[in-house]
Write a structure and sequence with these properties.
alpha+beta, two-stranded antiparallel sheet, about 20% strand
């Protein structure tokens, strides 16, 4: 059952991404030749309105194949026949729909259980936080100038800036104060001596606050993805630490199983929470300026917008094909690591 649930969650996230491309393509008069879920041979398909809708064998990925997307076709309905602005909108719509899905799911979560306020639960005696004057009940509002709205932002900032001194801005008794804290190295890594958790101090919201904190929730996962990519480039993590479709399905399935004992509501809340992480991650990754990804296509479109002339379609197609081959190679490596971790 957990595999079925995981595949359903993964499929919805992919479908929403491709739906963004599909709807904007239709709106701009671009012919969509095929809209599919999955990869490989077709299992089921039908045609309607000039588009073939398909369900394919491998339950990973999906596509929105547009007429003339990678060629010189300038005929009516072809991707290349539309204005550069229309084509940018079509390509950007996929990632944007991922972020929109994350926002909708966040509204459900925040509306039900509120948000995790960045309130300190306690400070450890003899550690830097206590020596700097921080106390239980203090609400963190900034770390080195970065606005903190969720407790998880505090945790992530400490992880992504390990060992760095931090100027904390916090609120105590309605008064905003500042203090500098330099973490100390312990056997468990650098520590401030601050304790707390995402469930320690949850704040219920009114409808307007629910919308605001749902947007913060999506921002948090987008920022976390970007910071993780920076850490990858700096060598803080390696390809072996990355997860592909197999690993993602495993994590979703495990989340579903572990949540069942807490009741149906918490099953949905936990599945929605991990879905926000995944859909935000997919949106960010697709916006990377790499060939074959949406971000890579946007680079070519932005170049066209600046120089008022399209890059040679044949050259662009070759670049995207080379990028696709490299991405497929990376996917194979990551999938191998996923499978190896399952059986370790």
């Amino acid at each position: 059952m957990k595999i079925i649930v995981a595949l359903l969650v993964f499929s919805v996230i992919i479908i929403i991404h491709e739906l963004g491309h599909f709807l904007l393509a239709k709106k701009n008069g671009i012919t969509v030749e095929e809209f599919s879920l999955g990869m490989g041979p077709r299992l089921l398909s039908f045609e309607a309105g000039g588009t073939r809708y398909s369900w394919k064998l491998l339950p990973f990925g999906g596509s929105c194949m547009m007429l003339g997307e990678d060629g010189e076709d300038e005929s009516e309905g072809a991707f290349g026949s539309k204005s550069v602005g229309a084509r940018i909108a079509v390509i950007a719509a996929g990632p944007l729909f991922n972020f929109l899905l994350g926002f909708v799911l966040a509204v459900f979560i925040v509306g039900n259980i509120g948000y995790d306020a960045p309130v300190i639960q306690g400070v450890t005696e003899g550690y830097p936080a206590q020596e700097a004057g921080l106390q239980a009940g203090d609400r963190i509002v900034r770390m080195n100038g970065k606005r903190i709205r969720l407790y998880r932002q505090f945790s992530n900032y400490a992880m992504f800036h390990e060992g760095e001194p931090v100027i904390f801005e916090y609120v105590r008794d309605g008064e905003t104060r500042k203090t500098k804290v330099t973490p100390v190295l312990t056997d468990a890594g650098y520590k401030f001596g601050i304790s707390g958790s995402v469930n320690y101090y949850r704040v219920k919201t009114n409808p307007l606050q629910t919308l605001g904190y749902s947007a913060y929730e999506v921002y948090y996962w987008i920022d976390t993805t970007i910071q993780s990519l920076k850490m990858l480039l700096r060598g803080g993590v390696t390809i072996n630490d990355m997860s592909g479709p197999v690993g993602v399905v495993q994590v979703i399935g495990d989340t579903y199983e572990e949540s069942q004992s807490e009741g149906a509501l918490y099953v949905w809340l936990n599945l929605f929470n991990i879905s926000i992480l995944l859909t935000a991650n997919l949106g960010v990754m697709n916006l990377l300026p790499l060939p074959a990804l949406d971000g890579g296509r946007l680079v070519f479109l932005l170049i066209e917008a600046v120089r008022k002339k399209r890059v040679e379609p044949e050259l662009e197609a070759k670049v995207h094909f080379a990028g696709l081959m490299l991405l497929m190679l990376l996917m194979i490596v990551v999938m191998f690591n996923d499978i190896r971790r399952i059986f370790m």
